[in-house]
Structure prediction request, 1060 residues.
Amino acid sequence: MGALESVLIDGAWRPSIDPQGSFRASDPARAEPIGPHFPVSGPADVEAAVQAAARVAAELAATPAARIAGFLEAYADAIAADGDALVALAHAETALPVEPRLRSGELPRTVDQLRQAARAVRNHAWTDPVIDSKAGLRTHRAPLGKPVLVFGPNNFPFAFNAVAGSDFASALAARNPVIAKAHPLHAATCQRLATLAHRALLASGLPAAAVQMLYRFDSATGLKLAGDARLGAIGFTGGRHGGLALKAAADKAGVPFYAELSSVNPVFLLPGALAQHGGEALAQEFFASCTMGSGQFCTNPGVVIVPTDAAAGRAFLDAAVALFEAGAPKILFSRDGQHGVERAVATLREAGAQVLAGGDPGAGEGFRYRPTLLGVDAADFLRNAAALQTEAFGPVSLVVRTSGLADRVAVAAAFEGNLTGTMYRADDGGDDAAWQAIAAELRPRVGRLIASKMPTGVAVSPAMNHGGPFPATGHPSFTAVGMPAAIHRFTALHCHDGVPDALLPVELRNRNPGGVQRLVDGQWSTADIG
Amino acid sequence: MGALESVLIDGAWRPSIDPQGSFRASDPARAEPIGPHFPVSGPADVEAAVQAAARVAAELAATPAARIAGFLEAYADAIAADGDALVALAHAETALPVEPRLRSGELPRTVDQLRQAARAVRNHAWTDPVIDSKAGLRTHRAPLGKPVLVFGPNNFPFAFNAVAGSDFASALAARNPVIAKAHPLHAATCQRLATLAHRALLASGLPAAAVQMLYRFDSATGLKLAGDARLGAIGFTGGRHGGLALKAAADKAGVPFYAELSSVNPVFLLPGALAQHGGEALAQEFFASCTMGSGQFCTNPGVVIVPTDAAAGRAFLDAAVALFEAGAPKILFSRDGQHGVERAVATLREAGAQVLAGGDPGAGEGFRYRPTLLGVDAADFLRNAAALQTEAFGPVSLVVRTSGLADRVAVAAAFEGNLTGTMYRADDGGDDAAWQAIAAELRPRVGRLIASKMPTGVAVSPAMNHGGPFPATGHPSFTAVGMPAAIHRFTALHCHDGVPDALLPVELRNRNPGGVQRLVDGQWSTADIG
Prediction:
């Protein structure tokens, strides 16, 4: 197989012990392989990584908060300093635009996310201390004491990268070792990030095996690893099919599996909002959101519910069809991705949707698909709602034509769990009765309910919920984005009962020199006790 | 099958639609059936209950907090007022002592737990509002919008009862309908509690199907129900074998499964503590804890790690053997329970443990087992640690004889996930180096780390963690006891993005007349916004 790049195991870059093959990344715009040859790891690499991570878990759990925060900040600084090279690599491997997406959007977001995690570490905000001084009970969130396995997705080379994104930052903030599974479609970007992480790790004095990275392994090896009880938790961002298989393996071993899977993110355009803004303006907003990043977003507006009983609804639809029809083909990450979109569109058509615009890859080189709009009447949608919620991971959306509020409410009630649900409402409140009727069904089916804007933006805020009911995720009460909440996924609840002060973790002691926010005998306080 | 008692479905007591058989409770002290004949429900009862609960889920989710709290308080009052009759029934069905256990312990605890849940409802403490006013993001915990299925255990007729205990109170507090699966061993106690719950429900104006109860169904029906995606979550307290089977079904359907399963609750006696208190005194404390409730506690001290390299350790062991040997047989809940203990003791013996005292049911009527102490050397424990952690759900414990700290640390490292872990330490700090060495291994393996007292007490406090790593529970970051934390299990995270004030849930609006504690732009506050 010639010279293969090294993997990061047990504190060092070293050749794969048992490579099962090799692969290269591709330039999506030309459909040509680029960059070096990376190894497909076998069971020996995986076992070495798990053993090394398990070996340092206790040491990492006992590491002072300042040192963890120092690592996260140093790594954030290193990414920021290396921004030009990282952006160039990620652009070459993903074809995502340099501006504004990679340089002004995703890279600073990733740096900021690491810094937010560092702040949550420094102020202990993620530890949620609760103290009952009379009963002698003191509880907080603590490290799992076991490695966290992170699977990064194909669509965010920085912000959700297994070795730099939200899961990574969250797991490390809670002082758990991370075994990162890179995404092979941007392997060189992962390699460069991991190199920076590794250097920052050594400089910060954390255990060298606290961050490891493998590029790729086959699905049997992945399933065996996901079911390894030596793991403390798994973070996964990716497609539903592979995600649910890994979840089943993890569930059986009792390993919490935090999945962010597919979502079609229904968008309801209410009649008053259409009248206020005009169908054309909303169609432009919709088209821009649906085709941004070539539609390869987990919060892409995949289903739009349009009141075609209103003139502005029909105008929206006409304008949307024209925009999609005129749009140039969008570059997708991979040949597999293109085939996936083709299969999804075929599934939607077989389920009764009509192609209104696009519907094929279009001409030209590279992995691509034309902006595509499909349409279906509400009654047909309701007859075949499961198949018509098939996610097409690309610049594709399905319009559901509805007539009357009852139609819209029925469609809302047919959705499975999603990350987001959106309603465009009139500013004057004229849609609010409809809002409330639809929200009664939509609200419990989505993690984030959005008013009057497209769902694609996901702010990194403590008040964000990037999560939602199954099957959008594996659990309805966790978020993958937003510090410190995202950290909670990788924690264990630890109660200390009658334990003397000197033997308590710092944030549970009587003296509180760090001014940690604590719930003490029912009152929030940053003060010392007694 | 003659006259069968009614089941509580869809707001009314009514005959089972499709009884598959019938059963009666037993008097454990005489091994004789007592009380009326109850139905074993079939699929039609189960389906009717799920449909009714799903139908009222949205109405219940929209019910004002005060009305939910009113129900919980009215129900608490009704239980308190009916205490004598409830205690008499529970005593007859379980043989648990009236005093202090049932009348002065478990009944008031249950009443108080419902009132604590009501307080968390009135002050919205369980909703954890987080507001980012600049980003327009407002997130809180909300009802699941789906029914919660609760399986009650055999060992707490009140405090963990499916229709009165912590899971019930938690699920209702979060405004989710409850389908209670009674425990057949105290069916009449469940019936009486459900009657009180149903009356309080109607008086409070909650949807009549918000609380339903079935007595029993076969395991195939139970597995099908646990895998029903119409459920929002499942609370289960019980044995590992059945619990893991239900968990697998729930996991597959994406239904969060909160299990509290078996636990052996290791207790380490450190040399300084033994020297301080004397082996005899600690042996008495241990014997009392191990035989309380006939040892049928999830926090029963099932494994005790003794430094037999110390004279006081040997004195402890001698005294413990004498106490267990002299102890009268203890009454167990059922013939199955007795057989389960017999099997567990056989498993422990086959795995290398020696019987030091007891080891058989003893003479006399009723379901029973003698206080039983087994022993094993550390090296043998380590050789066969999995089998030697078999839980015997009765007055049975295993002593592990250790010599030197390294032995003790190695034994700590061999434990799987447990609810509790205990170390007895000397007040003068002489054991603290040993504490820290053992805690490094024990802490990540237990939910509650206890100093110098037996683990059987579980206070209902916001700072309690009655949970722990798999396989003690299904998830390391949730607690089954302690308000408001226990409520979090039955919530979904709901973000509102750009939603106008009037359309927000009350605790997320700008005005905060209830003085709800909220994290607003990084600061805890009970004030209005803006």
Q: What stands out?
A: Chain B touches chain A through 81 residues (CB under 8 Å). Residues 98-122 of chain B form the longest helix (25 residues).
